[in-house]
Design goal:
Blueprint lengths: L1 H18 L9 E3 L7 E4 H4 L2 E9 L9 E9 L5 E9 L4 E8 L4 E7 L6 E11 L5 E12 L13 E3 L2
Antiparallel strand pairs: 1-9, 2-9, 3-8, 4-7, 4-9, 5-6, 5-8, 6-10
C-alpha cells in the first residue's frame, strides 16, 4: 500500500513539474492551494503526528465576502483528523471553522469571509495522530476561493468569530 502511494505522489510531482508548479489563475473561482495536491506522511519522517498547514496573506485577488472551501481525503488513516480554517481581518477580529475529517472520506470545510470587513490573511491546519499505520496519504487537496454569492452567504452555521 505504501509503495503504491509513494508512486502516486512521485507521479503527481513529476506531472506538476511538467506543466508548471503553480496552476493558479486570477478570476472568480479558483484553486488557490499553493502546495502539492497529494502528500505522503511517513511515520519515520513525521514521528506519527501528521500536520499540514497554510497561511496566505491578503493579495490583490481577495475580495470582501469571498468563500473558501478546503477539501482533502485521507487514505490509510485509522482515526479522525482535525481540520481548522480561519480568517483574520484588518480590524483585528477573526472568524474560524473546525471539523473532523473521517478516514477514507473526502472532507470539505467552508469559511465564509465577512462582506463588510477587509481580509488580512486566510489560514488553516489539519492534524492527525497516527495509531498503528506507518504512512498516511492525503490526496485531492484543494483550497477553492469563490466570490460572494447572496444565496449561500449565510450557509455557515458553525463558523465562529472573535472580536476585539
Amino acid at each position: 500500500m505504501v509503495s503504491i502511494l509513494e508512486d502516486r505522489q512521485r507521479d503527481a510531482r513529476n506531472e506538476a513539474k511538467k506543466v508548471g508548479e503553480k496552476l493558479v489563475a486570477a478570476g472568480d473561482s479558483v484553486d488557490v492551494w499553493q502546495q502539492s495536491h497529494s502528500l505522503l506522511f511517513d511515520r519515520r519522517q513525521c514521528g506519527g503526528l501528521v500536520q499540514l498547514a497554510f497561511s496566505y496573506p491578503a493579495d490583490s485577488e481577495m475580495r470582501t465576502g469571498d468563500r473558501y472551501e478546503w477539501r482533502m481525503q485521507m487514505v490509510n488513516a485509522k482515526n479522525a483528523a482535525t481540520l481548522f480554517v480561519g480568517v483574520d481581518y484588518a480590524d483585528g477580529s477573526s472568524e474560524f471553522q473546525s471539523q473532523s475529517l473521517m478516514p477514507e472520506e473526502t472532507a470539505s470545510i467552508v469559511l465564509q469571509t465577512d462582506s463588510t470587513r477587509t481580509t488580512k490573511r486566510v489560514y488553516g491546519y489539519m492534524n492527525y495522530k497516527m495509531v498503528m499505520e506507518n504512512a498516511v496519504f492525503v490526496d485531492k487537496i484543494s483550497l477553492s476561493r469563490s466570490r460572494l454569492r447572496q444565496d449561500i452567504y449565510n450557509a455557515h452555521p458553525y463558523q465562529r468569530g472573535l472580536r476585539n
